[in-house]
Amino acid sequence: MDVVKEADNSRDQALERMVNQYQGLLLRMCYVYLKDMEQAKDATQETFLKAYRAMASFRGECSEKTWLIQIAVNTCRDMQRSAWFRHMDRRITPEDLPLCAAMPHDENDPDMMCHIMQLPPKMKEVIMLYYWQEMTVTEIAHSLGITHSTVSNRLKHARDKIHDMMERREHHDRKGK
Length: 177
Description:
Helices cover 71% and strands 0% of the residues. By secondary structure, it is an all-alpha fold. The protein has 2 domains: 1-88, RNA polymerase sigma factor, region 2, helix turn helix motif (Rna Polymerase Sigma Factor, Chain: A, Orthogonal Bundle), CATH 1.10.1740.10; 98-177, Orthogonal Bundle (Arc Repressor Mutant, subunit A).
């Protein structure tokens, strides 16, 4: 496990290594959370700035990846609570936008991505961390500051909701033919 407090690395080198290793992961996660690429880029950059400032206080109680994800999630939540974010023009909702085409992903199933993007934020974040970041339930709980059972419940509800959306879509497709 790489930790921020490497004896032979300066803070600048540690930051450069973290950016190279985790930038894509954090950008994708912030995009899913904020549903806007420019805001996701800002949140990712802010995450690294906060991590750089807090490097000396990183105790290594969790992995570096978990620590950065926790900072990113909190940064996204802060952005969503900001006055600017709350007063954005809401006449066009994220559900009205062609999310599948705009979503940066490596998955082969664009419909699955659309279903995931429609989940409530709390469900979406655990799905993202569990399946795409391959974090354990314990790591997710630590990153999000919630209990192990809450993570498990959110994963179950998210899976159920995605399954329901897929069944409705399949039923609709069969009915239209």
